[in-house]
Amino acid sequence: MRAQGYIEQLTGEAAGEALSALCALGKTKAGREEINGLLGDRQSLYGAAASEKPKVRKNAYRLMGALEDRRDLPVLREALQKEETLFAVPSLLLALGKLGDEGTLRAYEPPVSASPETDGLVAQIVLAKEKALQSFETYGQEQIDRLPAPRKVLCYAPEGFLDMLMEELRELGFDPRPENGAAAVVTDRIDLVYRADCMTEALLPVGQDVALDAEEIARKVGPLPADRYRIELRGYTRDRRKLIAALARALPGQNNPSAYDAELRVDCRMDRADLYWKLWNVADGRYPWRQRTVSASIHPAAASCLARYAMKFEKRERPRVLDPFCGCGSLLFARESLGPCRVLVGVDKSGSAVESARVNARAGKSKASFVTKDILRFEGREGFDLILSNLPFGNRVGSHEDNTRLYDRFVRRLPDLLAPGGVAVLYTMEYKLLKTCLDRTGGLVLRERKRTEAGGLLPWIFVVDRDDVRC
What confidence score (pLDDT) does residue 208 get? Predict the structure, then answer.
């Protein structure tokens, strides 16, 4: 479908997917010109930006950013005053950056996190503001590969996958030890740390249980790893601006949230804090395939963890691998990076998602192939040894009602999609629904379940064997 067809859907139930598809088309100059010409008075786009559905609003902001038409600035400015859904705000800020509204961005004060569940979302908003402002400043960042001396580095994995990260770090030559939910290593080779695909971030601890006082924090921090840095407060519920200003006065160097080499992370608990440095000037060559994403894409570190976890259940070398809801292809690329596969096939009914996956495959030099098709109608030449998939969660993509029908029909197809001895590793928020579907479907055996965490959600992993006695 071309732009005209998607624009006609902006006032319907498929507005979210239509907007996402238009964002993909808007990545080229020709695509932007076509969309801007077809939008006319832009009322359908502005109506989407005022939708009751957060996903639709978010994608409308993304499209305005992609189109880079300054006529949209008043709508975006008004939206910034009203938007209350945290996951939609980063797209709004990035759109304002694309349209060159430096004044509005600098005046915007990110919200204060009210609970651990929203810490990650607020951090994404802070980062989005900084990224949007970076276009207004030029700063040559000098990348490093070593620390001045060996020191402790805390490596974090998606929750529920620390064992996968520990395993990968050992393969890289480290001796990791679990410490407060992280894998601790002692090294000066920070470049090697950033080869761990299962890692979400690496932090250098500099102070634990420190009094929440600017002068005391400055003493504990010691020498700065970079002249330019930013200050990140987490869990602080009082006057953030006042404390950040006090810290900037107490610390040497320059607090520059728009151009920096390091981040001083201050994790607050009442009147105490833990202090960490996060380095942003380390070369990170992971995930070369991650050029495009789609709505609710799995985090690349989570994809790497899930692929590594799935390998433990594979029964064949060089398996045939299928992702029946492939999105932009992350899980297939993650599995491919761990070892050779005979076949890698991604299926998705969204043409824009499949196009994104193909772009990513070219960027990552992947052998995976992708098919635009409903998995319920897909017929492979032979069964698959591994089915690895991030199933629709039913919140940002689809709904529980949609999933009720989809999961039942998909699970009934699993015995036919799997080869003899095949295994399916399925990642989902719909725990009860998937468990019910599996219980009433013959030809399958539930082998293992594992709970994880992702952006405040608690998805589960189901490991399902084909029951070759009953198939």
Answer: 95
Contacts of 291 (CB under 8 A, 6+ apart): 356, 359, 360, 363
Judge if pTM exceeds 0.85: no
Residue 219: how many other CB atoms lie within 10 Å = 13
Amino acid making up residue 81: Q
**What pLDDT does 394 receive?**
64
Instruction: Kindly calculate the radius of gyration of the chain based on its CA atoms and give it in whole angstroms.
Output: 23
pLDDT in the model for residue 395? 53
pLDDT, block means (10 residues), the chain with 471 residues:
82 90 84 84 92 93 91 92 92 92 90 83 88 71 88 96 97 97 97 97 96 95 89 89 92 85 94 95 92 83 97 95 96 97 96 93 96 93 95 71 91 95 95 94 92 84 83 54
